[in-house]
UniProtKB/TrEMBL annotation:
It holds the Pfam family Cyt_bd_oxida_II. This is Cytochrome bd-I ubiquinol oxidase subunit 2 apoprotein. The chain crosses the membrane at residues 6-32, 53-74, 80-99, 120-143, 155-182, 202-218, 224-250, 262-284, 304-327. Belongs to the cytochrome ubiquinol oxidase subunit 2 family. One of its GO terms (cellular component) is cytochrome complex.
Length: 335
């Protein structure tokens, strides 16, 4: 049952990166659009993210619940030493969702629409930035449970070159996912061409950000290279991700967009496997001590069993409801 719980944890993180990433990326693309094309970009993104923006945070909630119930030591460590970036990220999620609702459903169209739009765009950048910072901090060994000073315990646990570059990489990945996702939702050829160009630009930005992450890892002593190239599984995933990147660029230049979403999703999945496989089952790397392991720092067997049963039973209700939500929006669009 423990492996069932871990599988759900990994899957929920992956789905949040893919679906939540495309959602955040919509605001990022709007921010990067020119004044002339902002309104058209906004409308296209609203059609695209409408079916998922209400539901994508479900995956984050599932991951948090799994950690809270099944791995309380890991949950408490992250909540204590990374509480500052966590609070900023959560405030960004709340501000973004609120701004999106008021901007699209407010009965009164006035100057506040500008405030809602800016809030939506800025929080769309801030939220994935700090999500990436949290992830980078968790694996970089910056968390020091023995720290005696506030700054060492709660500031420098996340404020560093490697976590920040991971945050920047996460922002570019979100913009890339959004552009790829929206290409299939465009209504005109001009709109389609515009988002193909955005996908190319965001892909280049993600590649540049990935290089920055590698440089920062080398500087901060994070063994990222060995995680990516230290075992056959990770090497295979990196090679496949690189090949899929070539396939994606060929598809973009040939204007063949049929498989783009699958290719992009495969790239992110392969990268996540490559990075996490080497230091499995350790989820959190600590400074000057052993990391926190999913196999060791878990709840009681009864708790894990009950959690696994709840996750399996919940899937019976959640997944059909999610598919019906997507189906309903598609039917509404056709009508």
């Amino acid at each position: 049952m423990l492996y069932v719980v871990m599988a759900y944890l990994w899957a929920s993180i992956l789905l949040y990166v893919l679906m939540g990433g495309a959602d955040f990326g919509a605001g990022i693309l709007e921010f990067l659009s020119t004044k002339k094309s902002k309104e058209q970009t906004r409308k296209a993104m609203y059609r695209a993210i409408g079916p998922i923006w209400e539901a994508n945070h479900m995956w984050l909630i599932i991951a948090i619940v799994i950690l809270f119930v099944g791995f309380p030591v890991i949950y408490s460590t992250v909540s204590i030493y990374l509480h500052i970036p966590l609070v900023i990220m959560l405030l960004g999620i709340v501000a973004r969702g609120t701004a999106f609702s008021f901007r699209n459903y407010d009965a009164v169209q006035d100057k506040m629409q500008t405030v809602y739009s800016k809030t939506f765009m800025y929080s769309s950048i801030i939220t994935p930035l700090f999500l990436g910072i949290i992830a980078g901090s968790a694996v970089s060994g910056r968390i020091d449970p023995l720290a005696t000073h506030f700054a060492d315990a709660y500031i420098f646990s996340w404020l560093g070159l490697f976590p920040v570059t991971v945050g920047i990489f996460t922002v570019t990945i979100c913009g890339f996912l959004a552009a790829i996702f929206i290409i299939g939702e465009t209504k005109t050829e001009a709109e389609r061409q515009r988002f193909i160009q955005k996908a190319k630009h965001m892909s280049l930005a993600a590649i540049a950000a990935a290089l920055l992450v590698l440089i920062a890892a080398q500087r901060d002593g994070v063994p990222l290279a060995s995680w990516l190239f230290g075992n056959p599984i990770s090497i295979t995933c990196v090679v496949l991700a690189a090949l899929s990147l070539i396939w994606m660029w060929v598809s973009l230049f040939r204007q063949s967009t049929k498989w783009l979403r699958i290719i992009a999703g495969a790239q992110i999945s392969l990268l996540l496997v490559a990075i996490t496989y080497e230091h499995y089952p350790v989820l959190i790397n600590l400074k000057n001590s052993d990391g926190l392991s999913l196999l060791i720092h878990k709840g009681t067997d009864k708790t894990i069993h009950a959690l696994a049963v709840a996750l399996l039973a919940g899937s019976v209700f959640i997944l059909p409801a999610l598919f019906y939500l997507l189906y309903s929006f598609n039917k509404q669009e056709e009508a």
